[in-house]
Amino acid sequence: MKNELNIAKLLAAFEVIMEKGETTEFGKRYQGVEASTDYDGYNVYLKGNGVELHIGFHNIYDLKYDQAHLKDSFLKKIDSLLQDTSADDHR
Prior knowledge:
The chain is α+β, with helices and mostly antiparallel strands. It is about 40% helix and about 25% strand.
């Protein structure tokens, strides 16, 4: 799984959520995905659809989920967030 995820895309989704999301106890939530970070910004967290993703320093990540379909749904949601933002940019 080392290179399975596109970290740049995930970090772009994190930025979208932080920009457009509603404030939660831990960070921001946008379209069902919650984003947060630690105090120094070296660790980024995304969670939703039964999936938790931690992206650490040097783009090392840990993806936790119980079932593969949850992971697939989460990654599709991330793609959707970025596509929606791209469509907004072209309006």
